[in-house]
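Structure (tokenized):
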């Protein structure tokens, strides 16, 4: 029997799904705004983005992963200066026909060099 118990590592992780570091070039779109960002990490339920500018985001946005041609409709959960945490509702491909609600995101993807 050991006199010393191994210390448990505190887990402050409240996420339902693990985060994957991504560091991908993206664009945040909302009605009347479009700004460059870096998608820092991604999980099945959310993502963290770092904005090119410290602009205030509206409650609902679409984040475009330029390299993957994927749009993530999302709700802004928190924002602190250039970083924002978003709850995303699922990935939608921007290749081929895009639904009407993602036309702005598809246009932003094409302007950012998407093919």
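Design, position by position:
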């Amino acid at each position: 029997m050991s006199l010393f118990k191994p210390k448990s590592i505190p887990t402050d992780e409240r996420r339902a799904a693990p985060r994957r570091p991504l560091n991908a070039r993206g664009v945040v779109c909302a009605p009347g705004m479009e700004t460059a960002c870096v998608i820092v990490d991604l999980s099945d339920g959310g993502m963290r983005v770092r904005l090119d500018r410290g602009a205030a985001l509206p409650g609902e946005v679409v984040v475009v992963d330029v390299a993957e041609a994927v749009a993530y409709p999302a709700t802004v959960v928190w924002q602190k200066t250039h970083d924002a945490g978003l709850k995303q509702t699922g990935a939608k491909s921007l290749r081929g026909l895009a639904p009407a609600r993602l036309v702005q995101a598809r246009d932003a993807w094409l302007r950012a060099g998407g093919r």
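Reviewer-requested clarification: The chain has a mean pLDDT of 87. The longest helix spans residues 103-111.
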